[in-house]
Write a structure and sequence with these properties.
This protein is of the alpha/beta class and 290 residues long. The chain is 41% helix and 15% strand. It binds NADPH dihydro-nicotinamide-adenine-dinucleotide phosphate (NDP). Residues 142, 165-168, 170-172, 189-193, 196, 209-212, 230-233, 243, 263-264, 267 line the site of NADPH dihydro-nicotinamide-adenine-dinucleotide phosphate (NDP).
């Protein structure tokens, strides 16, 4: 392997330490305790694990952290009523509705019901608009984490050709907006793109957010490129792999994120960052360095 390994676990630990210091500072100086609330509807096993991790890590950073658990039979009106109650609760600065929601609940309607200033997942249309416009909104966590990892390898990405493979609302599109805001020249590829290997070979920065195990081969990577692999896929043997064939790509890339231990740990770290940012803005306080 010749590529530099970009360590997501370490970067997340460092970010969490800055968040904990910011939380302690807000308490000491202003008596503000950032509060994160997660809403879980139903019994999806993976969602239960994610919600428990979010609750635990928010507490570890010194925040108020609560979870509201509704049964799988909850109606759309019940979920919306809970969201409205949390919107009105001044002790709650960040609300995250864990996806997926049961079929009878319209996820987009629930997201749009959130107070955009408490939407720490950054999925509300107002936050999408801010992301593509003048900024100042809450930025989706996985794309934000991907950018923090990119900055570990490239201090100034301006002018670089960035290729994003994937155009989902959760990863591909927001990460493309962030790369554009960082003055990269951005190409967004997807399932209908022609000559994907050729497009990828033109990338100084390659972001993979496809959801297909090891689809991006070493021969698709430009020598020296920075590769950020957002994919998390479980193989038939139960192994976790990314969207990039790591062993091959690491021979060619300049820097690369592993899976696991790359983008994955950054997602909750950025959720905690967003909660501090939301709390500061709601109280009209400057956001500390995070
Ligand atoms: P989606 O399924 O929503 O989007 C996948 C995207 O990849 C689509 O835009 C699709 O194109 C594109 N695509 C699919 N197949 C191909 C192909 N053969 N060639 C080119 N493009 C293709 O996935 P997400 O964005 O939600 O997630 C992507 C990956 O990131 C997954 O592995 C997921 O597990 C992981 N993930 C990781 C997170 C983390 O915390 N690290 C958080 C969120 C996601 P089209 O639009 O044309 O259909």
């Amino acid at each position: 392997m010749s590529a530099k390994l970009i360590d997501g676990k370490q970067t997340a630990r460092e970010s969490n330490a800055r968040v904990a210091a910011a939380v302690a500072g807000l308490k000491a100086s202003h008596g503000i305790v950032p509060g994160l609330t997660v809403v879980l509807v139903g019994e999806d096993p993976a969602s239960k694990v994610y919600v428990a991790s979010k609750e635990r890590e928010a507490k570890a950073a010194g925040m108020n952290s609560t979870a509201h658990r509704l049964p799988a039979t909850a109606t759309q009106d019940e979920v919306l009523a809970l969201v409205r109650r949390l919107n009105a609760d001044a002790s709650v600065h960040g609300i995250l509705v864990q996806l997926p929601l049961p079929r009878q609940v319209d996820a987009q309607a629930v997201i749009e019901a959130l107070d955009p200033d408490k939407d720490v997942d950054g999925f509300h249309t107002i936050n999408t608009g801010r992301l593509w416009g003048q900024g100042g909104g809450l930025v989706p966590c996985t794309p934000q984490g991907s950018m923090l990892l990119l900055r570990q390898a490239v201090e100034r990405p301006a002018g670089a050709h960035a290729v994003v493979v994937g155009r989902s609302m959760i990863v591909g599109k927001p990460v493309a907006a962030l790369l554009l805001a960082a003055d990269c020249t951005v190409t967004v590829a997807h399932s209908k793109s022609r000559d994907l290997p050729g497009i990828c070979r033109g990338a100084d920065i390659l972001i993979a957010a496809v959801g297909r195990p090891e689809m991006i081969r070493g021969g698709w990577v430009k020598p020296g490129a920075v590769v950020i692999d957002v994919g998390i896929n479980r193989t038939a043997e139960g192994k976790l792999v990314g969207d990039v064939a790591f062993a091959e790509a690491a021979q060619v890339a300049g820097a690369i994120t592993p899976v696991p231990g790359g983008v994955g740990p950054m997602t909750i770290a950025c959720l905690l960052r967003n909660t501090v940012i939301a709390a500061c803005r709601q109280h009209g306080k400057p956001v500390p360095a995070l």
